[in-house]
Amino acid sequence: MDGNGGLGDVVTCRKDIVYDTLGGYLTGVKHANGRDWWIVCNESFTNKYYKILVTPDTMMVSEQQIGPVFDTTSWSGQSNFSNDGNWYARADATTGVVVMQFDRCTGMFSNPIHDTMLTMQFGGVGFSSNNKFMYVFTWLDLYQ
């Protein structure tokens, strides 16, 4: 903060945190402690999720295999956390929708629910502000 005459300075550092064939669908949620963050992404063509815990002084990576294997050949879809951080949803045009519970303390997913009925051209997935509803939308339709 003292750099650049007191205006602050940007220091760049390039460090590989996860080196793999990533499938995108990057999203994040605040840790239960209210300070740290969980960043989640997945490995392509697997059911492996990378969970990166970002703290003020470090980043720690953990992995978990859970739920269906996503065929990311369509590259059309999205992942998202509910506003309270307790639910994670991911949807793509080939595999469908998966919803899982997420523990913001441990970073562990559990209880995956997979729906293949909606395998079509996905646009995205999101949650209502009160966390009671999940929305999946396609090019022409919106599902609740």
How would you portray this structure in words?
By secondary structure, the chain is mostly beta strands. It has no helices and 11 strands. A 4-stranded antiparallel sheet has the order 1-2-3-4, with no helix packed on it. A 4-stranded antiparallel sheet has the order 5-6-7-8, with no helix packed on it. Strands 9-10-11 form a 3-stranded antiparallel sheet, with no helix packed on it. Strand 1 and strand 2 (37-42) form a beta hairpin.
Give the distance, in angstroms, between the N- and C-terminal Cα atoms: 46 Å
What is the 3D form?
elongated
Oligomer: single chain
Contiguous low-pLDDT stretches (5 residues minimum) are none
Largest sheet: 4 strands, antiparallel
Helical segment count: 0
Give the strand tally: 11
The rounded Rg comes to: 17 Å
User: Given the helix and strand composition, which structural class is it?
Assistant: mainly beta
Strand fraction: 35-45%
Widest β-sheet, arrangement of strands: 1-2-3-4
Helix content: under 10%
Would you tell me the overall average pLDDT? 84
H/E element string? Answer: EEEEEEEEEEE
Strand and helix layout:
Elements: E1 27-30, E2 37-42, E3 48-54, E4 59-65, E5 77-81, E6 87-92, E7 96-102, E8 109-115, E9 122-127, E10 134-138, E11 142-143
Antiparallel strand pairs: 1-2, 2-3, 3-4, 5-6, 6-7, 7-8, 9-10, 10-11
